[in-house]
Amino acid sequence: MSTKGQNESSPKRSLSYPAPVERLLTELTRLPGIGRRSAERLAFHVLRGDKQAAEKLAHAITDVKSAIGHCSICSNLTEHDPCPICESEKRDRSKILVVEQPRDLIAIEQTAMYQGLYHVLLGRISPLDGIGPEHITARDLLQRIDNPKRNAGGVPIQEVILGMNPTVEGDGTALYLTSQLESRNVRITRLARGLPSGWSMELASKAILADAIEGRQQVRE
């Protein structure tokens, strides 16, 4: 007797993962640079581990959202406001190094060559992506310059160092900030181009960053 009819009428097996796994995969693929295959590797790593390891990961994610914020002065990531750099009386509060992201700040701090303050833009101007000056913290930077009370310790800012990454967007952001700063009584400099064109600051070595800080060039007196 043929089993063809029975095979056709039998229910097909589901090829999808259980619903909780699918939800985890969906959330993982929302992360930048994580595709479906990478998400599957991460998900199965979590599944292979014990419950305690998974709970530690979950708590770390929730804690970083509840405990970490942005410094009200420089916009760096911090647990306490103001951040330790802005709060330190040992730093030169008359000098500000402007960077795109907190990771750029960390890269420069690791060189131990810079002892001023920072301002983190939390992005860069990119018209093609619909990102304008209003989407970064450029206005907060200008307010720190215009009103010393907005700066750490109420110290007037004398020098602004432009430390954007050497990319088309980074250069465009630097040009915009320069145009806004030219009418203000501050010295404008930029990091020396020891940084390879097209690189991100976080990928540069400590020696390259140190040279860039030491050899910064004047944009305007």
Give the tags.
221 residues; alpha/beta; Dna Topoisomerase Vi A Subunit, Chain: A, domain 2; 5-stranded mixed β-sheet; 41% helix
* Spatial gap, N to C terminus: 95 Å
**Percent in helix:** 40-55%
Query: What is the spatial order of strands in the main beta sheet?
Result: 4-3-5-6-7
Name the poorly predicted regions: none
The major pleated sheet works out as: 5 strands, mixed
Mean pLDDT: 88
How many β strands by DSSP? 7
CATH architecture of the largest domain: 3-Layer(aba) Sandwich
Radius of gyration: 24 Å
The assigned structural class equals: alpha/beta
CATH topology of the largest domain: Dna Topoisomerase Vi A Subunit, Chain: A, domain 2
CATH C-level category of the largest domain: Alpha Beta
What oligomeric state is this?
Answer: single chain
SS summary, helix count: 9
Name the beta content range.
5-15%
- Overall geometry comes to elongated
Return the domain count: 2
H/E topology pattern: HHHHEEHEHEHEHEHE
